[in-house]
Specification:
alpha/beta, D-Maltodextrin-Binding Protein, domain 2, six-stranded mixed beta sheet, globular, disordered N terminus, Iron(III) transport system substrate-binding protein, SBP
């Protein structure tokens, strides 16, 4: 029995070595990561795969997708790997037949629902949206419904889902999980909520006291609080939405072996530890959370179906626009 186990382990090691040796040549990454994060990710990958020459194009997800779409239209997509903000965009590419499945990707450590079931895209982080409030605010919210209370009237700012994919996912998640559905957003409107700007602007408004409450991605206020900003961040008790900064391989890739190695690195324990060092919540359930966060089991994720969201995206934008027109 021991001999058989050793043979299996040796075969696995040989397979890993073969994969590593096959990973060479050029690899082009299109990403919405901040430049520093993108470079750190590439440097860590190249430490393991020195024969792969990686270049990257970095911009916000809408601009990255506009560039990729133009290249696809011209018949010459340049990207091998796509690492962007949200799974809905990835789901659209999947349904168009633009993505390459990575059937051998090891996702055994992850719970169901984190990655695409057909292994065409893989979440690398869990960037949640919760509530930020100014530390001087009288009401200390613990629930999404707290934002509809009189104490919050005209004091809430949130990103608009008409301008942000992550904000759209957040809006659809809340509307799909809170008991009142879209009625919740009608209550926010009636309470004077302002839906405009991005996360950075929301943080500025709350930190300066221009507004006392906001909906925002977790890491921004948590980092700023550590620097002395007068803000607090709350993971509401009903749960939070999350975007997974998924990675996927384009079917048109010129280097599938290197692309698969890059995906394997990002979802490996080592790649997930890098996400932690960069200050994010790793998607891997066994990786610790950054300083300033509660324990992982204190963060409840609301259910979200990327394929269902893709189908309802246009209707959700229209519904939100009608509420906040």
């Amino acid at each position: 029995m021991r001999a058989n186990i050793l043979i299996v382990l040796a075969a696995a090691g040989a397979l890993a070595s073969t994969t590593a040796l096959a990973a060479e040549g050029k690899l082009v990454l299109y990403t919405s990561q901040p430049n520093t994060d993108a470079q750190q990710t590439i440097d860590a990958f190249k430490a393991l795969y020195p024969k792969v020459e990686v270049s990257f194009v970095r911009d916000g997800t809408p601009r990255v997708m506009a560039k990729l779409r133009a290249e696809i239209e011209a018949g010459s997509p340049q990207a091998d790997v796509l690492l962007i903000a949200d799974s809905v965009t990835m789901e659209g590419l999947k349904q168009e037949g633009r993505l390459l499945a990575h059937d051998a990707a090891d996702v055994s450590a992850y719970p169901a629902g984190i990655h695409d079931p057909q292994k065409m895209w893989f979440s690398t982080k869990l960037i949640t949206t919760g509530i930020v409030y100014n530390s001087k605010a009288a009401l200390k919210p613990t629930s999404w419904t707290d934002l509809t209370k009189p104490e919050v009237k005209n004091l809430l700012a949130m990103p608009s889902p008409l301008n942000s994919g992550a904000a759209l996912i957040h809006t659809m998640t809340l509307a799909g999980n809170l008991p009142g559905g879209w009625r919740y957003y009608e209550q926010l409107r009636d309470n004077g909520a302002l839906a405009a700007g991005g996360n950075g602007d929301i943080l500025r408004q709350v930190a300066t006291g221009e507004k006392l409450y906001g909906m925002i991605v977790d890491f921004m206020p948590i980092r700023e609080k550590a620097k002395g900003a007068p803000v607090e961040f709350v993971f509401p008790r009903e749960g939070v939405s999350a975007v997974g900064e998924p990675v996927a391989i384009l079917k048109s890739t010129k280097n599938p072996e290197a692309a698969k190695a890059f995906v394997d690195f990002l979802i490996s324990r080592e790649g997930q530890a890098l996400a932690l060092r960069q200050g994010y919540v790793a998607a891997h359930p066994d990786v610790a959370l950054p300083a300033g966060y509660p324990t992982r089991n204190a963060i409840k994720l609301m259910p979200f179906d990327a394929a269902q969201a893709l189908a309802g995206e246009a209707a959700a934008r229209k519904r939100f626009s009608a509420i906040f027109e």
